[in-house]
């Protein structure tokens, strides 16, 4: 008996579902029943597993050799498994059947046919009812992040292109510069303009020397005026304390005060002269020299691209070289226009600078001469007239000292 039972257990088939999970006995029977009711039994493809090891072909007996029906339909089994209706009354004397939640839900789902249109409507309704769900916010955030990344990528590409162009331009200009230094390359020269530039640089060096010397004169003369003022104050104090020498100390005190007053006038004229020379040298001339530096850089770039175009023109004339020659021709034309424009700017600025320099220096040199002559001649009236002529305003005494608000 035990051997028979173990033999049957050894050949028993265990039903599983599509997910690889084992099915309960009731579920497997119901699935077999539904399959038979839908398609009907196919005895030609059905096989029965025997209960022992003595059967043919390893315990598998083909059903084609079995006569008679292999499966009997039992309607009572279906009725017994169907749960009772929720609203129906129990038959008197009948035992209440235990309700299974799984079977109840299965019974309620019998006869429902899935509809694709209904499913799509439900999905659309869920999407419209929940517009601000986490997935939507995440999608909007992802779009914003993508736009920011694209903008950053575009900026990085532009910077890379600018660095690439700068590198190529620097290489060509450096090559041209060394070729000119070692006498291997040619350079574009405008003899007249180059001579004017050299004169301007020499003039600037000399004017800087004049500015340095007049600044030193202003400093020394300021110290002289301060000394004369201190000396006049000392003489005035001694004239009050020395009755026997009151007149002598008084004369010297008045003389030193007069010299100090005239010295302040001359100091104002010299300061005006220094300020005008400083503006001419460090602003007007410097601006022209900055334009000259741009012109020289443009000339170097122009010669570099010109040499590159000449080198390509001497090479082979294949398709790739012709494309490079065309690109180089365009770059050469751009550099040539830039060079011509800056050369015109330099010419105009040199002309205006020369006119401005003559006008400014004529006025300032006349002021300096008249002020120095009047001071050392002791002509106070002429010195004051000179200051009025050139609109030189003197600072009131004590204006250099900080106010009591600044001191506190």
TrEMBL record:
Keyword Coiled coil attached: yes
Biological process, per Gene Ontology: intracellular protein transport; regulation of Arp2/3 complex-mediated actin nucleation
GO cellular component terms listed in the entry, alphabetical order: cytosol; Golgi membrane; trans-Golgi network membrane
Protein name: AH domain-containing protein
PANTHER family given in the database record: ARFAPTIN-2, ARFAPTIN-RELATED
Pfam families, alphabetized: Arfaptin
Key words, A-Z: Coiled coil, Golgi apparatus, Membrane, Phosphoprotein
SUPFAM superfamilies documented for this protein: BAR/IMD domain-like
GO molecular function, one term: protein domain specific binding
Coiled-coil positions: 325-356
Cell compartment(s), UniProt: Golgi apparatus membrane; Golgi apparatus, trans-Golgi network
Record InterPro entries: AH/BAR_dom_sf (IPR027267), AH_dom (IPR010504), Arfaptin_fam (IPR030798)
Main location: Golgi
Keyword ATP-binding: no
Record-linked PROSITE patterns: AH
Encoding gene (name): LOC112234728
């Amino acid at each position: 008996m035990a051997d028979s039972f173990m033999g049957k257990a050894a050949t028993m088939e265990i039903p599983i579902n599509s997910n690889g999970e084992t099915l309960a006995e009731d579920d497997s029977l119901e699935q077999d029943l539904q399959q038979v009711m839908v398609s009907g039994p196919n005895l030609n493809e059905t096989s029965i597993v025997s209960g022992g090891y003595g059967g043919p072909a390893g315990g598998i007996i083909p059903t084609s050799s079995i006569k008679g029906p292999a499966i009997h339909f039992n309607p009572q089994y279906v009725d017994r498994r169907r749960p009772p209706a929720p609203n129906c009354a129990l038959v008197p004397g009948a035992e209440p059947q235990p309700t299974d939640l799984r079977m109840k839900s299965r019974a309620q789902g019998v006869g429902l046919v899935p509809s694709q249109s209904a499913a799509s409507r439900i999905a659309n309704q869920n999407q419209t009812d929940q517009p601000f769900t986490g997935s939507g916010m995440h999608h909007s955030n992802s779009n914003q992040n993508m736009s920011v990344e694209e903008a950053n990528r575009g900026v990085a590409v532009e910077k890379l292109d600018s660095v690439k162009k700068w590198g190529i331009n620097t290489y060509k200009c450096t090559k041209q510069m060394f070729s000119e230094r070692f006498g291997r390359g040619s350079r574009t020269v405008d003899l007249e303009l180059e001579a004017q530039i050299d004169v301007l640089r020499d003039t600037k060096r000399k004017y800087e020397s004049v500015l340095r010397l007049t600044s030193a004169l202003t400093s020394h003369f300021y110290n002289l005026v301060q000394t004369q003022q201190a000396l006049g104050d000392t003489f005035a104090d001694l004239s009050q304390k020395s009755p026997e020498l009151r007149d002598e100390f008084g004369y010297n005190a008045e003389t030193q005060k007069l010299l100090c007053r005239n010295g302040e006038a001359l100091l104002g004229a010299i300061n005006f002269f220094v300020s005008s020379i400083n503006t001419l040298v460090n602003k007007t001339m410097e601006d022209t020299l900055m334009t000259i530096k741009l012109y020289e850089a443009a000339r170097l770039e122009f010669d570099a691209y010109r040499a590159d175009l000449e080198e390509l023109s001497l090479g082979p004339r294949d398709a790739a070289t012709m494309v490079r020659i065309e690109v180089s021709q365009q770059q050469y034309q751009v550099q040539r226009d830039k060079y011509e424009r800056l050369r015109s700017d330099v010419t105009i600025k040199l002309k205006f600078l020369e006119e401005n320099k003559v006008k400014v220096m004529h006025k300032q040199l006349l002021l300096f001469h008249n002020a120095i002559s009047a001071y050392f001649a002791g002509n106070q009236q002429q010195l004051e007239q000179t200051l009025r002529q050139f609109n030189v305003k003197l600072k009131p005494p004590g204006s250099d000292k900080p106010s009591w608000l600044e001191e506190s």
